[in-house]
Design a protein that fits this description.
The chain contains 12 helices and 12 strands. By secondary structure, it is of the alpha+beta class. The protein starts with a helix and ends with a helix.
Length: 431
């Protein structure tokens, strides 16, 4: 009621013959489109018209996998008709990277010189790797994309994923809670340009069999025997679905994330198991805190994965499935990682490391005890000391008396100087 009255008062105060203010419909979008040129760029285009010059255009786009919105301010020449193009660079590092198969929702917000604003209708673009012609199959919010092979390729992987989802549920109570999109690449050479930028040395020494790029997106090499890769990468996604935090698993240590993924495989594989076995034999394992983030050194990959797997295996096999699920639930519910460990297992991160070390035959690592806050030093009350006898100089004069007299003279001089200075300041203030 107040809103209608206010509007009426505004209209009544308009001078006779004055034109009404421009409505939102006076700004119109003539055409809007987005062109996918992955892995290089996205090209957005807009044509619009307005009764008053359009002075500002904002492009907003939102990713389906993160729900994060990004704002861009395209450059253009203001006017009553505009025709602009805006390029989003996808090759500018991890910050600019958007993985293929993500659905982008985008829209425009236009402002004119008359102070009116118009928001366009929302449009969607499924970002696919534009180098290939993709086929797809979808069932129960799981979509598989591939570009080489017949229908059986997609159906085989889809059935494998469904079986793995059932395994994750029955083993750990981890369930799908959102879309899963899998891209099958025919070779490492095809996959590498679609990956986020990593060091040239790492990429030259390590072949990526699969990778989870967000809470929705998996890349898998479409090679024989990729069943282990599929369950490994799928575990990352479903763990993220369970925890419900921003990718890449904010707050989840890398050793837990990767260790659980290897644990869900039918076996850790020769590289990982031999990597940790050799390190244990030489007593050259990582500290647990060292593997809270993933290694960037190709030479450390086997040990990193092997030790991560071994640590998770210790937690589940030694302490039971129920405790592990309870621990993940604590973390999902917002309990700090180390607090969750303490509440469920009764040990800290360092305590877990030493418990694991003992389980594999290594001596516990010395852990510095917390330093207790220092108490103020207590000074005992002592009986009065006997006054020392005054020393006598060669001339037989009492040095103590000289010092006392000298100090008195100095004090008197300072007092006189202070008195004179005060008088001068007083005189200046009254002048």
């Amino acid at each position: 009621m107040k809103y209608r009255l206010g509007l009426l008062l505004v209209l009544l105060t308009l001078p006779l013959g004055a034109a009404p203010a421009l409505a939102q419909s006076d700004i119109s979008v003539l055409s809007s489109s987005a062109e996918n040129r992955f892995p290089q760029e996205l090209v957005f285009r807009l044509q619009a018209r307005s009764a008053a010059p359009i002075q500002k255009v904002s492009l907003v786009y939102q990713r389906s996998d993160t729900r994060a919105s990004q704002l861009a301010l395209p450059t253009f020449t203001p006017g009553t008709e505009i025709d602009l193009r805006h390029i989003v660079n996808l090759g500018g590092g991890r910050e600019a990277y958007i993985p293929p198969t993500v659905v982008l929702t985008y829209w425009w917000v236009l402002d004119d010189s008359a102070g009116h604003q118009m928001e366009s209708s929302r449009q969607e673009l499924t970002l696919l790797d534009s180098r290939f012609t993709w086929r797809s199959v979808t069932r129960n919010d799981v979509t598989v994309y591939w570009y080489r092979g017949g229908d059986d390729v997609g159906q085989t992987i889809l059935s494998l994923i469904e079986a793995d989802l059932a395994k994750l549920d029955s083993t750990l109570g981890l369930r799908q809670n959102g879309a899963v999109r899998v891209s099958l690449y025919a070779s490492p050479q095809d996959m590498v340009p679609a990956l986020p930028v990593r060091s040239a040395v790492f990429q030259s020494e390590i072949i990526t069999l699969g990778i989870a790029l967000s809470r929705e997106v998996l890349f898998v090499l479409n090679t024989a025997g990729n069943e282990e890769t599929v369950i490994h990468e799928l575990t990352h996604l479903i763990l993220h679905h369970f925890v419900g935090r921003t990718f890449l698993y904010e707050g989840i240590p890398a050793w837990l994330n990767e260790g659980l993924a290897v644990y869900m495989q039918s076996s850790p594989g020769q590289d990982y198991s031999s990597g940790i076995a050799t390190a244990i034999r030489r007593n050259q394992v990582f500290t647990l805190r060292q593997i809270f983030s993933q290694t960037g050194e190709a030479s450390e990959v086997s040990l990193f994965y092997g030790q991560s797997w071994s640590t998770v295996k210790y937690l589940i096999d030694r302490h039971g499935r129920e405790k592990f699920i309870s621990f993940l639930t604590k973390f999902r519910d917002g309990v700090r990682f180390e607090d969750g460990l303490l509440q469920v297992y009764g040990f800290t991160i360092d305590g877990l490391e030493n418990a694991w070390r003992e389980s594999v035959g290594l001596a516990p690592r010395p852990v510095a005890s917390p330093v207790a806050p220092q108490q103020p030093e207590t000074i005992p009350t002592l009986p009065p000391a006997r006054a020392p006898q005054p020393a006598v100089s060669d001339a037989g004069q009492d040095n103590t008396l000289v010092f006392v007299l000298g100090g008195a003279v100095i004090v008197a001089l300072l007092a006189g100087i202070a008195l004179v200075a005060g008088l001068l300041i007083a005189r200046r203030g009254y002048g």
